[in-house]
Amino acid sequence: MSTQVDDDLWSAIGDPTRRRMLDLLLSEGGGTATSLSERLPVTRQAVAKHLVVLDRVGLVHATAIGRERQFRVDPEQLARAVAQLADVGAAWDARLHRIRRIAEQIQRRADENGQQSTEKEQ
Amino acid sequence: MEHGTIERELHIDASPEVVFGVVSNPEHVREWWPDEAEYPPVPGGEGRIGFGDAAERTWVRFTVVDAVPHRLFSFRWTHADGEAAAPGNSMLVVFELEPAGSGTRLRMTESGFRERGWDEAKVAFEHADHVTGWDFYLPRLPGYAAQVAANA
């Protein structure tokens, strides 16, 4: 099985400020650009830009609350990002397990044949 | 330099000669990975590996980088059609073999994931263990991964 890696998703999660924002949104159940900027050493404008990136890849969703937009983390999409990372490693574990099984089978067969031919010679 | 690497090491009760054949020969490779593999197992060998039923097979480019019998086999894959395999456009897989007792120590590394995407996502993954918020979501993953696998 080939494992597809979603570059955009990983890039979105790749920025430390955006990860900190995801943490805050998760621990507080949601937030606005203003509330997030109060907790982070960056401007509200910068937070708003990061929210656009997170929104574009579906890691957060917004609902309008008064004049501001309230953002929440999309758990399915976050799970997908983390699962992709785990999948690549798991796929190689499975392949290496099969490599070992095949190689050891070939070796056993070769050893048995070797013994048989040695026995014949004796 | 390429960042972001998966590394694995395992012992196999078979000689380096046998293990080298299994990791490099297309006849064997399709037993442990793709459904089809077509490439000359020599340095620079260009070819492809295919996934899925013959009717709707997805082909992925595959280029042998190095092949030193019984010691080293490396290849690049996933580069786009029309592009030569190179750092930045493909994943590099390296198998290193070393005699160990009566068997072989096999080391596999895969690198070349988009630098930031991979490195930072890995940090995020490790980071997840330390952040309360993430802990809530991590238990959901096994079920989700199974679902993804079922739909794949």
Describe this structure in words.
The complex is a heterodimer of chains A (122) and B (152). Chain A is mainly α and 122 residues long. Chain A contains five helices and two strands; from the N terminus they run H-H-H-H-E-E-H. A two-stranded antiparallel ribbon of chain A has the order 1-2. Chain B folds into two domains: 5-113, 2-Layer Sandwich (Alpha-D-Glucose-1,6-Bisphosphate, Chain A, domain 4), CATH 3.30.530.20; 116-152, no CATH class. Chain B contains five helices and seven strands; from the N terminus they run E-H-H-E-E-E-E-E-E-H-H-H. In chain B, strand 4 (58-68) and strand 5 form a beta hairpin. In chain B, helix 1 (16-24) crosses helix 2 (26-32). The two termini of chain B are 33 Å apart. Mean pLDDT of chain B is 78; it is low at 115-119 and 126-149. Chains A and B meet through helix 1, helix 2 and helix 5 of A and strand 1, helix 1, helix 2, strand 7 and helix 3 of B.
